[in-house]
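Section 5.1 Outputs to date
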Amino acid sequence: LELGAGDVLSAAQAVGFGTSFYLTEKMMAREPDQALPITACQVAVTAAISAVWALGDGSANGWLLDDARRASATLPGLFLDPSLRGVAAAAAWTGLATTAANRGAE
């Protein structure tokens, strides 16, 4: 069994995700009428961090600047490439079921 940087990032993501929900619940208990602004702020920060990450990764690894590689590395490419359908399903589940539906339910 060998652990790598990806394993550490995966564990950190799970801890961060759980911590964000814990803190969100505490904020919403104090300010129940602020659910929409709190959610909007969380989504905006996540979008900004994701954009910075994608620009950095895409520029450093070249996929952002190469049309063919960019087509398969972005969301439409995931759904259109048969070999990446499992990845597309995981991305859709994560985005729609565990994030959007949860935020809407809150």
